[in-house]
Amino acid sequence: MASLRSRLALALIKKKLPEIVAADPVAELGDGLHVAIVGSGSPLPDEKRGNPCVAVIAGGKVYVVDAGEGASETLNRMGIDAGRIELLFLTHFHSDHIGGLGSVNLQRWVAEGSDTPMRVLGPPGVEEVVAGYNEAYRLDRGYRTAHHGEDFVDPAIGAMVPEEFPVPGPGESNVVLDQDGLVVTAFEVDHSPVAPVVGFRFDYQGRSAVISADTVYTENLVAAAKDTDLLVHDALSEELLLMVARAQTEAGHQARGKILADVTDYHATAPQAADAAQKARARALAITHIVPPLPLKGLEEVFLADAPDRFDGPLWMANDGDLYSLPVAGGLTRTNLIRRRR
């Protein structure tokens, strides 16, 4: 016999389920540019942060930048319907930026209203990455079509379509999308020895946001981010990361210690991200791709160091679920879609 607790739980979920399923926070957003942080972490396991992923919302359409592991799950927790995804951009092909690509595409494929394959735009190499995922999911697509029928899971739209764009030259940016009032430009950043790596600038109805991708401080990003309303910049703490690297080495984990120490030379620090935002005259800065994980709240101050003193505008440590809204009329608000749904 079911316990009182289980019966109450079942009654509660029956009452709440229609509301949960029908919720569409994207439809509730006013006209403007909205930047949702889907994953604010890195390849290092972090219970608070998923792998890198950002959703940019303009005109009711969702554009995803990178798809790290857990991206589709977090999009669902945020209430962002995968069927709204117009296309997906890739900045580069590190595992933490592409690990969730197959799952995001699967969720979009089976979403209500999807009638086209998902376009994946990226620099040279995108065709190889997408082809690999399409092949890896080929059997899965066949199983699902056989089970549910072509009327519900159309095999013609299950595989992603890659679209390669050239890497802009030094000091240049290329328009990679211009539709429905949204203009997206790509610019090269410095994550060497990884190449090519690009960041993206989104301009819509007079508002703008820039996503750095993974990079050290670079003047190319500063130029691309000139006068932007919001700069989303990756960062690490060299002090904290080297502390973890030394602990790994001293514990006999030589390879882990070496790899962690190596990471310090191809990401900006929080103060360097603040310098870039200040020089670009960005109006706000959100720091993401947090390395290393910060298990204690007090470590955020150590991570940021003197970054708040280097930048005149609002500065935040991004969290999974954060939504930065830039209404056409002006201003900037910050909320969290995951907390809002609890």
Description:
By secondary structure, the protein is α/β, with parallel strands linked by helices. The protein has a single domain (33-341), classed as Ribonuclease Z/Hydroxyacylglutathione hydrolase-like (Metallo-beta-lactamase, Chain A, 4-Layer Sandwich). The chain is 35% helix and 25% strand. It has 14 helices and 15 strands. It has helices at 4-22, 25-28, 71-78, 95-98, 101-109, 126-136, 138-148, 219-224, 238-250, 254-263, 270-280, 299-304, 307-310, 337-341, and strands at 32-39, 53-58, 61-65, 85-89, 119-122, 161-164, 174-179, 182-188, 198-204, 207-211, 230-236, 285-291, 315-317, 322-327, 333-336. The strands form two sheets. The protein has an eight-stranded mixed β-sheet. Strands 7-8-9-10-11-12-13 form a seven-stranded mixed β-sheet. The chain is globular, with a radius of gyration of 21 Å. The mean pLDDT is 95.
Q: Characteristics of this structure?
A:
Metallo-beta-lactamase, Chain A; 25% strand; 14 helices; eight-stranded mixed beta sheet; alpha/beta
